[in-house]
Specification:
binds FE2/S2 (inorganic) cluster; elongated; 2 domains; 3 helices; 6-stranded antiparallel beta sheet; 4-stranded antiparallel beta sheet; 164 residues; Rieske Iron-sulfur Protein
Length: 164
């Protein structure tokens, strides 16, 4: 039974049984964990935004090799976009059987480039830059430098891509 008193706290304490207290504690613990996860989810993009270009470059060069599991099944004429460290990259299986991998970050202003299989070229939609899909050479448009090539090793389990 609920005992009548002047304070709400006392009423609460008497009204709730031990099971309800545990439920409340579990709820508060879960809310705390959810709050931390939410804070981390908000803080990470802010950290990424504020990170200096030097930090970003160090982070990007820290990764030297990526294994793309099952990528050996990529049919000729197809491309696979993947992350090499923090940056997007391309793995192209050309019609002639050659495997080529390179960074997908345009050397003009950093947009992500795309492989166009019909034209067998790499195109940057931001300002119309074009690159050679075999060498990464900047062919036309504003890009000042070629795309950086990676080493490719195809095996039965996948494709290993590493810095050249
Ligand atoms: S960012 Fe690629 S052409 Fe300008």
């Amino acid at each position: 039974m609920i005992e009548q008193t002047n304070t709400e706290a006392h009423i609460e304490a008497v009204a709730e049984g031990p099971g309800e207290r545990n439920t409340r504690r579990a709820f508060l613990a879960a809310a705390g964990v959810a709050g931390l996860a939410y804070t981390a989810a908000l803080a990470y993009p802010i950290y990424r935004y504020l990170a200096s270009p030097e930090e970003m470059a160090m982070e990007a060069t820290a990764v030297t090799e990526v294994t793309l599991k099952d990528a050996q099944k990529l049919p000729p004429g197809a491309v696979l976009m993947f992350k090499f460290g923090a940056s997007p990259a391309l793995l192209i299986h050309h019609q002639d059987g050659r495997w080529i991998s390179m960074t997908a970050v345009c050397t003009h202003l950093g947009c992500t480039v795309q492989y166009e299989p019909q034209a067998d070229r790499i195109h940057c939609a931001c300002h119309g830059g074009v690159y050679n899909a075999y060498t990464g050479a900047n062919v036309s448009g504003p890009p000042p430098r070629p795309l950086k090539l990676f080493k490719v090793a195809v095996n039965e389990a996948g494709v290993d891509v590493s810095r050249a």
